[in-house]
Specification:
908 residues, mainly beta, 47 strands
Amino acid sequence: MTTHPTTTGFKSVATVVFLWLLLVYALPLRSLHAGNSINLSVETIEMQLQQQDTLSPGAWTSHYAVNPLSMQTHAIPILTEEDFNPGSNVNVWNLILGRVPGLNISHYDGEPGGGTSARSNYTSSTREWPLIVIDGVPLIREFPDGMRNPLNFLSPDDIETVSYLRPTAASAVYGMRGSNGVLIISTRKPDKDAPVRFSYSGNVSLSSVTKTPEVLSTEAFTQLVNERYGDQSDVLSLMGSANTQWQDEIYRNAAGHNHHLAASGNLAKVPWRASLNYTDQAGVLNTDQLQRLGTQLSFHPSLLDDHLQVSLNLHASRLENRLAPQQAISNAIGFDPTQPVQDSDSPYGGYFAHTNSMEIPIPEAPANPLALLSQTNNTDQTTTLSAQTQINYRLRSLPGLSLHLLASQQQFNSDYNGLTPDNTAWAWAIGGQRTENQQEYHSGFMEAWARYQTGILSGGHSLDASMGVTSHNSRYEYSYFTTNLENSTAGVPFRVFEDFQGSSEAQFRSLFAHAGYNFNDRYLLFLNLRNDATSRLVDDNRSALYYGVSAAWQVHNEAFWSENSFFTALTPRLSYGTHSSEYPGFFLFDVNLKPERKATVNGGVDIAMLANRIILSADYHQTSHTDLAILIDVPSGTTTSTILANGGKAESSGWDIRLHALPVLTENLSWSITTHFQSTSNEIIELHRLSGDYQGTTFGSIHGGVGNTIFINSNGYPYSSFFVLQSIYNNEGYPQPNMYVDQNQDGMITHDDYIRYQTPYPEFTVGIASQLQWNNWNVVFSGRFQSGNYVYNNTSSFFGNYSRLYHPEGPYLGNVTPEALALNFDNPHFHSDYYVQDATFFRMDFISLGYRFSGLLQDALNLTLTATVQNAFVLTNYEGLDPGVPSGIDFARYPRPRTFVLGVKMDF
């Protein structure tokens, strides 16, 4: 039995919220003394509490961010503008690619602003993505399809800092939603009492495809057809006389430009900032286009002698996407190269089409790749509106106590329009197609908390504690309407294919409390307790209690520590926490599904050497998973083959090491280098229903055949193990047709002979970034090395056999890859281990050269010019298009382009 639970009452939480808001407005004003804050940077791991007179005006915070002890006991670095990747960056993922320790970021493909995989090395399951928090407000996980990526609404130039909380740290505050860690994004804020300033940054870019799958040339294709079908004139007659390189036809050099203008200052002692941004980025796949226009406005007044601070942030953006049909990529790989692109006699828009003797398109034949791109017009316009306000109030009557309220409303409105004319070959038989889809996502967030700080008391003791509530409501409304076209050329009657609408709601509530204790800046202790409730689960399972404890010893503050020591700082850390996962709302699951439980032990150490010229941070974690939520098979005859259910145990572990060094530091020359290493391993200990001859749950659909999958989850193996047959190889290293190892030696090759072989997830990843500065010149590069990850080369298994050459059901001809000649497979061997290939790689993400002109126009203008190459090169032995395949299945992917960028930045 399955269910889709939606909303329910949270009366007890509502009561707490009401009492809390009453408390905020009822208490009188009195004086409040200084509290504690924290100063973090990627160059400094030694984190010391600092005294300040007020809360920082304009600082968007959460109850987590204002407690420094929580950050000190987990060693959380923050990336700033100096750490961001230069170049043409559509969203924040490009900005921090390869820069975040503990988070493996990679793009699914090369479309502008396309999908991104962000997988924590603490994550043991196939679920990805950390919780994303922007200016203290969690971003809802669902987003309109046409946006391509939920972070495309936000301009990277408006981002000030990015930090990543590992799950052990994230669960301290974000509970089940922080199971995969939390990516905290802070946008730029105005400075108090700063004069009016302006800034402009912009760039122009040119992107090009560096590699496409290799296919037979027209000459080789013609020769192969003649060799195999030379005695069948009906097959030979299917060949044309053209010489078309179809992949050259569908790709282009793509231009782009980005502009960002910002102004900030103080108006009547109210700090303000306003920005306007525009992005226009073409994709290398013909007709693909992304455009964004956005604006942001912030006000941060301080009242009542800085005891009351208000922050207001308004954001609006509009994304316009022309979505190129990516089916054209696979069509171009396999299309007959002897056929022309255009045919002046063709009634199908003037494009060549496979037709029968009556000049009617063959339904089974692939569409002309360029026609598919040119004749299809799929567009999406997504408008984003958001408003946030935060109130921080320091009570005069109770020194040390402050009250905080953070509220936000966000809305995505998406209008998708698709048009396929009735004179297209692939839609002629149905009379063309018109699609109008609307999607709306509403998110309302409120968080209220009280914070109490003692300051440093006699004896060196201090306490920093918070408690409060969180409420997050989301609503999804949708409508889908698809028809063919009236009075179509094929004379097909008008028909409505789909016409439906609906909505879904979800609520999330939390009660939390945490406290940090500091003794003399030497012994640090942080405790947290929270209760989460989500309406995505049924009543009996939707609420869960989580807790955590972390501690750190700042050895360098001990009396015995020598000031002249080789080691500048030494801080060992230890933490333990329980957490779980909140599940997305749009899939089927077991009626008794409850939150997956996780318990993580994390040990780490931070070491600074040679007056902070060398800084090392190392962490090791081990996580046990119970009530594991995993896809399981359900009996045939139901509406789905798998559902999500509890019933498993797993373990995961890994290292996360970061090293920052400053080898050279002189008056005119400096060189800094940062590298991080992360490793992870996981194993399923117990799987639901796994007994007897049940091998596990298979999943991961591949192209070719019906119902073919490539992954399995089984006891004693990692998540997403490839499930394949072990081929028998010849002396040249190629698998022999239809010859596999009989694993159980029963004389037959059956499902029992399949083996679990490798996984798509890397055993370890190494990131490296370098910055060399000589006077006003600056050279920066960043790259990644990844090892132990394997990819199923579905492009090879699909196109690398002779069955793709002649299609009698058309009839029509199709191209194959040169691998078909080497393997000599008459039919596909989809489950041969040959196609599970080592995808170890080193990728240079970018190389940038910059020059800074300072003091221009009598010190009124600073100007920086940069030249950047993004995706500069990849070193790998992987035989497919690109080794960076987060899903582990490589089929006709949108290629990642190499991009050349010229940029300018001005401050005045």
